[in-house]
Amino acid sequence: MKPVDALTEAEAKRHLHMLILEIRGNDELYYEKDTPSISDADYDAMRARLLAIEARFPNLITKNSPSQKVGVKPTGRFGKITHAVPMLSLDNAFNDEDVRDFVKRVRKFLNLEADRQISFTAEPKIDGLSASLRYEKGQLIHAATRGDGETGEDISANMRTLRDIPETLSGTGWPDVLEVRGEVYISHVDFETMNAKQEHQGKDAYKNPRNAAAGSLRQIDPSVTAKRPLKFFAYAWGEVGAPLASTQYEAVQNLGKWGFSINSQTKLCASSGELIAHYHQIETARSQLGYDIDGVVYKVDDLALQARLGFVSRAPRWAIAHKFPAEKAFTVIEDIDIQVGRTGALTPVARLTPVTVGGVVVSNATLHNEDEIMRKDIRIGDRVEIQRAGDVIPQVLRVLDADREGRSDPFTLPKQCPVCHADAVREIDEKGKEDVIRRCVNGLACPAQAIESLKHFVSRRAYDIDGMGIKQIESFFEKGLVNEPAHIFTLEARNADIKLETWEGWGETSAANLFAAINERREISFQRFLYALGIRHVGHGSANLIAKHYLSFESFMAAIKWAAPKEGEVWGELLSIDGVGEAAAGSLVDFLNAPQNAGVVAELLEHVRVIDAEAPSAGSVVSGKTVVFTGKLKLMSRDEAKAKAQSLGAKVAGSVSQKTDYLVAGPGAGSKLKKAEKLDVKVLSEAEWLALIG
Ligand code: IVH
User: Fold this and answer.
1) How many CB atoms sit inside 10 A of residue 384's CB?
2) In the chain, how many domains are there?
3) Which tens digit of pLDDT belongs to each residue from 3-50?
4) Whose CA is nearest to atom 17 of ligand 1?
5) What is the pTM of this model?
């Protein structure tokens, strides 16, 4: 793109006209429809270019230029707020069996006696957007979206316009610090009125109340949000200066007394039978409630028990969302495409005649793998029933006209990668079982795998580089400028040749911002670094466990080298990490010892420094110690014992070795106890262990 300095007045006028249309279009997508089509960096670059042209040709400034709108910030959208306590999500239950399992799991974890009663709350799961409101000394300090659970967007100004949200808490008894969490939503009646207005003004209608709520919350100008009929239900809390009550039910009742709307459909239940009965009651009332819900949430009522239960990765053990059945529809398979993913997996994707399912237009569905296609005998041209549940990718349930004449041939997956044409095979594991997934064997030499790996590398839980998203990776990759992670970190040094600021959609500011964001990531946590490598079976949770275990990336890499034969002490240690299974351990060893991958990592390490994971909180007598549990425990379940030990900074291993500090042995302990005695490992009874950890 021509630099602003070089534009003639006629050219400047044309450019301005185009930029105004583009910015307006994108504002509408972003604020009104909640479906931004370009990155923040691209957007900022467009605005920067517009301002630069207007600065050079002030006579070309028109009334309808975005620069003339009051209340619109020239760059950036919302600030960020780090949640004092992460905002968790919920595990799902899809049927009665899952609910009974949930109750059993809770009872088992807590090791409850058969006759010990336990209560749960059951309440509607509101289909809106969650938000967290921080009050200090009774005053609203700020409000944030959920974001990735750790950090959200600062939407204080917009949230202050909601009538359901008190600026000052009422009543008494609230703690000095109180983070109230709940759902922002729009009622059915308000949604209808709002859409009627939209249409009256010649604007597109919103797809559903949730989208309308999202769009309304993202307004830059709070006076626009103020005109939107947003409501808020409080149902949870984050950081609190003092306990809100001793039960979930009372705590939420207190939120009600302090000025929040709480849901009247909440009920206390004493068994899975009662939970399921209340679920059906809410399901029957669903259409009369006046707002969208997508299930019922069950929570352990006793807050002391909630604390004991804690959470696994991003979801509490003490709650579950019982989802309403998925929405279904009929359509036709127009074609089947093959996508090649980060790990080389060939995934067949059905291109469908677009159809509305539960208020959303669906035009693609995953077909999973070739066995699934065969089992359901899915062919191009078939009429099929599809289903969509929540945010998950739509699925094809069944073929409707399997006996019709003139069907196309059965669909088979290619035996070669459609992108790089290398062989695509189904691996056979040690037990002789064939993998259901067919994979391209070409690794990072396959362009599809390389680009998908790069997208994963910059994704939110990995490097999370501001301004470097899917689109930017695609464009750098296509131009041959970034083929592997390390290249991201040399972009700035190469910019004299690249001249990013002159590319379409980029400007001085956005290019500088991108380089700054990249430089910020030259130091990265062990966990993010490992996760970013995109190793099969190594998700964000196992990367975390591994980082906590080895603490430094160097010692981890040394261990991986020694574990290469997949036997012996070092391999055993890797396997002993609770939560790291054989599949993850095997793929770590295979991946990191493969010369090409080792090269990619080594090159990356020339540009970035991996920060050691934090040593487990000192202070606890067992922090940093390795503990093994064996035999039957009486006072708590094995799972609770493990979780407790981990929360105190201990490492829990599955087998006894020289590295074991304590073996906690209950009645019935066998070979582990013998081994511990042989290795002179300290053996404790359950009571002694509890006394030790206090
Ligand atoms: S409790 C730690 N209760 O569902 C538990 N969540 O799928 C925090 N949601 O992120 C959530 N209604 O946005 C809870 N009555 C309710 C809810 C609810 C809707 C949302 C919430 C959460 C998501 C998880």
Assistant:
1) 23
2) 4
3) 888 888 888 888 888 888 777 777 766 655 556 566 666 777 788 888
4) 125
5) 0.65
